[in-house]
Write a structure and sequence with these properties.
Length: about 180
């Protein structure tokens, strides 16, 4: 288990309480959620991603000017690609995106949905509307997938939403990389 995954599992367990499952799902009980929030201060999405070691995602959020949005607004559901997910992109892609903040912002907004959607609810969906205005497909056969990405960690709670960690960067339709 990588340090980041261990951190996220620990963060999810602490946030969800002792009843969190190994898969990281906290369940959707409003009472449990309120109880957890009353006992600890949760970080917002952007600082939590930084604390968890998502260095490429954090750099991208900063370059696209979305740090304030993902810290002070919400609630959001973020499908957060790991550093390894960014590394799977063709050579030079991350650097090219970092140099084009508007294109980068489109990619990042394609990873964010309005509202807080826990894993239990994600399992009931076949798609989700992103803040970019395009939908992502959700499949649950053989694990949970968002477009071509596999969800590797669920229900990481933040003060302004929830994070589901994915293993592939989602690319919006019509965007040439």
């Amino acid at each position: 288990m990588t340090k980041r995954m261990l951190f996220l599992f620990t963060a999810a367990a602490l946030t969800c309480g002792a009843g969190a499952s190994q898969a990281g799902s906290c369940g959707s009980s409003d009472h449990a959620h309120k109880h957890d929030e009353s006992h600890q201060k949760l970080s917002a999405i952007a600082p939590l991603a930084k604390e968890a070691g998502f260095s490429t995602l954090t750099a991208a959020v900063e370059a696209a000017g979305l740090t304030e949005t993902l810290t002070e607004q919400g609630p959001f559901t973020v499908f957060a690609p790991t550093d390894e997910a960014f590394a799977k992109l063709p050579a030079g892609t991350v650097e090219a995106l970092l140099a084009k903040p508007e294109e980068l912002k489109k990619v990042l907004l394609f990873h964010v949905a309005a509202g807080e959607v826990p894993a239990a609810t994600v399992l009931t969906l076949d798609s989700a509307e992103t803040l970019l205005g395009q939908k992502v497909a959700i499949r649950t056969d053989g694990g949970v997938r968002v477009n071509d990405a596999t969800v590797v960690q669920t229900d990481v709670r933040a003060s302004n939403g929830i994070i589901h960690v994915i293993d592939t960067v989602l690319i919006p339709e019509g965007l040439e990389l």
